[in-house]
Amino acid sequence: MNNESKYSHAKPHWREYAEFANRSSKKTAGISALIGLVLIVIAAFIANAWRNDLPNYLAAHWDATGTPTRSTSFGGYIAPWIIMGLVTLGLFTVVGRALGNQAMYRKWIAAMNVWTGLFCGTYLLTGLWFQRGVGDYPRAPLTTITVGLPLIVSILGLALTWVIIPGDPPMPTTIPIPNDAARIVLPSQQRAVWHRRISGRKVLIIGTIGTLVILAMAYWLWNWALLLTAILLMLLYFTMLAFSVRVDSGGLTVRSFLGWPRTHIPLNEVVRASVTTVNPVGDFGGWGWRAGLGGNRIGVITRNGKALQVERTGGRYFVITTDDADGAAALLNTFADLTRSPSETV
User: Fold this and answer.
1) CA dihedral in degrees (67, 71, 75, 78; nearest 10)?
2) Domain 172-200+241-346 CATH class label
3) Is cis: bond before 261, omega within 30 of 0?
4) Strands 251-256 and 58-62
5) How far apart are CA 133 and CA 130, in angstroms?
6) C-alpha closest to that of 257 among 240, 274, 269
7) Which residues contact residue 152 at a Cβ distance below 8 angstroms, ignoring those fewer than 6 apart?
8) Disulfide check for 72: which of 60, 231, 297, 333 has CB 3.0–4.6 Å away?
9) Could you report the per-residue pLDDT of 133-188, keeping only the tens digit for each?
10) Are 253 and 215 in contact (CB under 8 A)?
């Protein structure tokens, strides 16, 4: 918190910020991974304390109606959850240390580490709780609570972690926009706004079809867990693949159709807006709200092709694939120029 206060009340040197961000990403990834690990270990200890109340063989697989179809030993039941949790925590931690130089990804990696610990630990315990005292594994059907409770608990933990992890400190600059950056002519007192709605239509269509299939299965099997899964998938699609983008006198604002995730880049943090070309897989590893290699680029990627690229103070970049990227860049540069005083520098 002391480092963040330092940067909040002074104009930071960009190199110092990069060093601060690198330290912060490693620290955040490490602490959140430790929290996830502790949650999994606690769940394993609780499971071991229940061992005498459990059947010799535990239900490990269920059919579509929730009837047990395969059994395993106590160790065979808990080992996959522990291993999956440890591997997932390791992967998120490595990615967080490599790509966490912007606050959004530090927050995301920390939230996913906590989510992993809660999901694996809670699913492990709910699966065992309903098998305590049943005598034999065929009497342990899969219930909605067994599937739904871990999802709800882990998502709440993810959301709480996201809120707790602090964002980037303000980093204003008064350095003028470069002379060769695109601009438009705005008559005195004239207001201007650039606005687009963007979406990954093909991915959304495929996702919607898949969600409808899951909904049909949920209705046919009367399975509330599948219904919850379908709802969560649809929410995921509309938070990661459908966005509103706006440039106005306050800066650049990007938000999903559901309102989150959202980011705002104020004019006093715009170094330059320009147009670039994006390959989703090659540049960002896929579609949606993504991080580029190196950790200094965040992308809202819905397709191949032209994109608005905003260079921010602190050596950060924000990229959005959109129609009329040229117009958005020119207007953003123009607004940012109007806020600068050439006599001042960072």
Assistant:
1) -20
2) mainly beta
3) yes
4) unpaired
5) 8
6) 240
7) none
8) 60
9) 777 765 666 666 777 788 889 989 998 998 898 888 888 888 899 999 999 988 77
10) no
